[in-house]
């Protein structure tokens, strides 16, 4: 075993000894970091799942141009050809009045009996305009709709633009609240870790005095405290992951209706391994930074 | 190009000692120390301690003995004057350079300053661990010094289960395990019974015979008389007497 590994193990032992010397204080710090990261992690999960819904929905995004009644088939085909030349359009499908009626009939099921009394088909013919993936966004939808708007023979244009814009705003809001909360909680976590380490430094003042006496360097004295902060932060991150997973598996299925409202048909997913490691890293980083801040403030004369 | 005195290639070089200074472990030049304005713990103290010398600092409580020791192991800085410790300008050392100097100085206190939750062996090993000594060497050196001080059978005990004399011997073992060039002892027998006092003092005094400069602060006249070594008497922060060695004590 090399000298540096042996030294690192000695620091690790000292850090663990420090944690076990004040289990209550360390436990409170770990729990606080855990709860903070649960809140931040919950927002991150929500944003990730909402973004996923948007990605899934994007595949089905298209513009529908409803045509005026009485247009000749030639005119309808001419409009379809014009729509196909618009930038970002990959396909144009002409849906006749009859096909629209068949679809409606298939869609309403037993309610189709209502259609029996109609003397004529009230549904218009339409063009279903598909978009290239890079144009499946609120801006893409607006651009394609704008190019077709006002063309003679087109009565009305519809797209998911309003919904997409609204959902994007909702994601931005959730993300913004998440970041704001993350900043506040990160600050609170830093203060808590810093105070925990400061208490540890104060409770071991005699030991530190003796270490200084025998010629211990600042790094030798400070490293165990930094490791202590790092361990507390990582443990808080692990606790947060555990709590989030428990909520995800045990509690979330009971809120099916709310999830359906928020995420549509998208199956909610948990963190990937990389994202889970990232959350652990954030916890460890907060712990390390808090411990560093405590050491700096304690070393001031 | 003229080079600034005391500087070599841009770095501060040790001040050039005189002929006597080459043998000196510690030199103090007109040193004063004041903790509150107008009140001095030490005032205009100039002293030199040679290598391998055993010196007693005596004087009543508040005379400045502990302040002088603290200045030597760079726990404090003088308000005025210069201090050279093992050729280093101690008050000028930064946070990174102070620990290496302290590793060359052993310190023993009246209240032992041992870690109660660590064993005797771990307490003594601390002085070697901070310099990154290999574990095997550390254990061997710790065992050797504990054996020398008659404590090898107590190495797995905790300090609080030992007698006062044994605890002080552990503190001495920790101070000596690094083979320091200077040993400072601040009232090392102040908490001990009279019969233990000379046992501990013999251990400390013996260290000087191996070339270590030993400076003992004490107000116990019996000790000073028994050893007959150089004695510096302080009163109200000033040197009032610097009596040379006059005996052939232990």
Provide structural commentary.
The complex is a heterodimer of chains A (301) and B (250). Chain A is of the alpha+beta class and 301 residues long. In chain A, helix 2 packs antiparallel against helix 6, helix 5 runs antiparallel to helix 6 and helix 8 packs antiparallel against helix 10. In chain B, the strands form three sheets. Chain B has a six-stranded mixed beta sheet, with helices on both faces. In chain B, strands 4-3-6-7 form a four-stranded antiparallel beta sheet, with helices on one face. In chain B, strands 1-2 form a two-stranded antiparallel sheet. Chains A and B meet through helix 1 and helix 7 of A and helix 2 and helix 3 of B.
Give the secondary structure arrangement, pairings included:
The complex is a heterodimer of chains A (301) and B (250).
Chain A: H1 3-21, H2 23-59, E1 62-67, H3 73-84, E2 89-95, H4 97-108, E3 126-131, H5 138-148, E4 154-158, H6 161-203, H7 205-213, H8 218-251, H9 256-263, H10 273-299
Antiparallel strand pairs in A: 1-3, 1-4, 2-3
Chain B: E1 7-8, E2 11-12, E3 24-36, E4 39-50, E5 54-58, H1 65-72, E6 80-85, E7 88-89, H2 98-102, E8 105-109, H3 120-129, H4 135-148, H5 164-176, E9 182-186, H6 194-208, E10 213-217, H7 221-227, E11 230-235, E12 238-243
Parallel strand pairs in B: 5-10, 5-11, 8-9, 9-10
Antiparallel strand pairs in B: 1-2, 3-4, 3-6, 6-7, 11-12
Helix pairs in contact in B: 3-4, 3-5, 5-6
